[in-house]
């Protein structure tokens, strides 16, 4: 299996991740071909990453290289020789595409480099060490259809609930591309992800609300520990056992995917594009579940600051959250059951048509979709509050405040202006989001052909690959 590491402007963090993974390779005797997908723009960071790769090359069985902006532009030239392709430039965030930031474009580079193969994707803020629940049976009743999220107050408590475990690469190889052998799904598994444990790896300060009431009583021993967990959480997300789910939840940090058939592109320039990608993957292959592995990779905590109290007093939806709701709405209007590329094109056409609607119509649709979602969340939190009897009290009180916050958001929501597009001028921000949606639509329509070109390039043995 090929291995990719995503990085951006963090040579020291990347070094720890690579050294940790290479140590695993040495201990296990496994070979690997490693590509560092380097999104750095600072010349010093670029030079440091290339020097790091050169220094580690030859210390293990396999290969290691950096694939930065120069190689990315060369890849684009190989895929579209002679004339630029706006959708490809947008996917890779090339100069002139008008979109930068976050990991979507870097992940797209990895997709196009390794079409037709099984890939292990790792972020640069990981250490290749894993933990599992010490007593998975104690959490079975709460796991449901998504990985179990446990925000904790200290690393000591996390270590009492978990034990170290080994990574078995053969399990991932066997799972990817094979049917899950469950009654609910019949298609081959396209995506498998590990859990995550360590410092604050999520951006939503209200993630503590997702903890089931019964679990809350197990993990927070008193208000002091709860307050610490809420503001500066050492957290765990993991399943008690190998499970197959139709709920993408999030995809991040450590996951494997099978690209023997086309997979969707990531949307560049926005947060949580990986979760949006997982939704599109499920839309393309509805019979193929996502596999959750019963182990969690260690995440470096020092790069995220604790939440401030102000973070808990506002809710501003991100573009990914809004786009998922819009795509789900558009999917309901797709006739029949098209093949995977056809579904992608249908969703892309729908996005572009939506972007061409008058301003007021766009606002009406997005408001209706977002308010319906808020209503469902409020209902779910009310049920959670009642199920736990408001206990523990400090958790119940916070849950009530969060419900009130959701009510206030419903009264003053502006989903046509997601977080990334809230500029000084609201009109300019709304127009920027409209253009972004149109570009995403064009990308989805063009992606099947881009994928075919990438497949042909991979089979040709081109040196850039």
Detail the topology: elements first, then pairings:
Blueprint: E1 2-7, H1 11-28, E2 32-38, H2 43-56, E3 62-67, H3 69-79, H4 86-91, H5 104-113, E4 118-123, E5 126-133, H6 140-143, E6 148-152, H7 155-161, E7 162-165, H8 169-175, E8 191-198, H9 213-219, H10 223-231, E9 234-238, E10 243-245, E11 254-258, H11 273-284, E12 290-299, H12 319-331, H13 340-355, H14 359-387, H15 393-411, H16 426-460
Parallel strand pairs: 1-2, 1-4, 2-3, 8-12
Antiparallel strand pairs: 4-11, 5-7, 5-12, 6-9, 8-9, 8-11, 10-12
Helix pairs in contact: 1-2, 11-12, 12-13, 12-14, 13-16, 14-15
Number of strands: 12
Mean pLDDT reading: 91
The number of helical runs is: 16
Compute the CA-based radius of gyration.
22 Å
């Amino acid at each position: 299996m090929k291995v990719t590491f995503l990085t951006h402007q963090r040579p020291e963090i990347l070094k720890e991740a690579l050294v940790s993974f290479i140590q695993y390779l040495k201990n296990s005797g496994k070979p690997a071909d490693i590509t560092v997908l380097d999104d750095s723009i600072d010349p010093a960071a670029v030079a440091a990453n290339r020097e790091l790769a050169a220094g580690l090359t030859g210390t293990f069985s396999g290969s290691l290289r950096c694939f930065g902006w120069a190689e990315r532009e060369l890849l684009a030239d190989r895929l579209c020789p002679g004339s630029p392709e706006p959708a490809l430039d947008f996917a890779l965030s090339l100069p002139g595409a008008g979109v930068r930031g976050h990991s979507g474009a870097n992940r797209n580079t990895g997709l196009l480099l390794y079409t037709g193969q099984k890939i292990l994707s790792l972020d640069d803020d990981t250490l290749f060490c894993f933990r599992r629940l010490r007593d998975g049976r104690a959490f079975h009743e709460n796991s449901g259809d998504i990985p179990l999220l446990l925000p904790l107050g200290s690393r000591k408590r996390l270590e009492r609930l978990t034990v170290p475990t080994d990574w078995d690469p053969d399990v991932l190889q066997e799972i990817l591309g094979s049917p899950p052998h469950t009654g609910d799904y019949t298609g081959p598994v396209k995506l498998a992800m590990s859990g995550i444990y360590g410092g604050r790896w999520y951006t939503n300060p209200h993630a503590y609300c997702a903890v089931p009431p019964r679990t809350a009583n197990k993990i927070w021993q008193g208000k002091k520990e709860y307050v610490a967990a809420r503001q500066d959480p050492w957290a765990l997300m993991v399943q008690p056992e190998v499970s197959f789910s139709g709920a993408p939840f999030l995809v991040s940090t450590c996951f494997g995917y099978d690209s023997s058939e086309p997979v969707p592109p990531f949307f560049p320039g926005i947060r949580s594009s990986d979760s949006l990608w997982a939704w599109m993957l499920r839309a393309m292959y509805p019979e193929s579940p996502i596999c959750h592995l019963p182990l969690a990779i260690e995440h470096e905590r020092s790069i995220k600051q604790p939440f401030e109290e102000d973070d808990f007093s506002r809710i501003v939806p991100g573009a990914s959250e809004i786009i998922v709701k819009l795509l789900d709405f558009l999917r309901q209007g797709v006739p029949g059951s098209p093949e995977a590329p056809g579904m992608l094109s249908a969703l892309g056409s729908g996005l572009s048509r939506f972007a061409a609607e008058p301003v007021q119509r766009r606002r009406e649709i997005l408001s209706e979709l977002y308010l319906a979602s808020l209503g469902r969340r409020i209902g779910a939190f009310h049920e959670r509050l009642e199920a736990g009897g408001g206990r523990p009290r400090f958790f119940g009180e916070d849950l009530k405040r969060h419900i009130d916050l959701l009510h206030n958001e419903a009264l003053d929501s502006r989903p046509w202006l997601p977080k990334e597009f809230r500029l000084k001028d609201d009109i300019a921000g709304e127009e920027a989001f409209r253009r972004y949606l149109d570009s995403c639509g064009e990308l989805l329509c063009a992606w099947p052909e881009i994928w075919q070109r990438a497949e042909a390039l991979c089979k040709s043995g081109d040196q850039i690959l």
